[in-house]
């Protein structure tokens, strides 16, 4: 069996295409879980301006790959505070959620 020797730069691994893809897949899973909660915003009780909670995925790379799930609505913070939408979605995706 062959052996590869040499130094591995972890920063390359953390921002490489495999890590970017892994982070993107998990981030999109969390976004799907938020959408699956079926939260509506706008009008109440099926009014004409009621629509699904807008959820967006953002991907960036600095010294490592980053993924972010954003509730793009003025009531996003209230939805998180009242229903824990992001927390539940991340937990359902297998992420460990901790207080800072």
Main sheet characteristics: 2 strands, antiparallel
Q: Tally the structural domains.
A: 1
User: What is the H/E string?
Assistant: HHEEEEHH
Q: Name the strands of the widest sheet in spatial order.
A: 1-2
- Computed Rg: 18 Å
Q: Low-confidence parts lasting 5 or more residues at pLDDT below 50?
A: none
Overall mean pLDDT stands at: 88
SS content category: alpha+beta
Strand content: 15-25%
The helix fraction, in percent, is 40-55%
Distance between the termini: 46 Å
Q: What is the β-strand count?
A: 4
Number of discrete helical segments: 4
- Can you tell me the overall shape? elongated
TL;DR of this structure?
With 100 residues, the chain is α+β, with helices and mostly antiparallel strands.
Chain-wise SSE layout:
Elements: H1 10-15, H2 17-36, E1 40-41, E2 51-52, E3 55-61, E4 65-71, H3 76-83, H4 85-92
Antiparallel strand pairs: 1-2, 3-4
Helix pairs in contact: 2-4, 3-4
């Amino acid at each position: 069996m062959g052996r590869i020797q040499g130094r591995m730069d972890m920063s390359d691994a953390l921002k490489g295409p495999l890590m970017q893809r892994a982070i993107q897949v998990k981030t999109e899973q969390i976004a799907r879980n938020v959408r699956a909660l079926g939260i509506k915003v706008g009008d109440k009780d099926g009014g004409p301006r009621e629509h699904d909670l807008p959820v967006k995925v953002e991907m960036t790379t600095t010294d490592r790959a980053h993924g972010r799930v954003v509730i793009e609505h003025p009531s996003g913070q209230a939805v998180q505070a009242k229903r824990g939408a992001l927390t539940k979605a991340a937990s359902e995706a297998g992420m460990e959620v901790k207080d800072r």
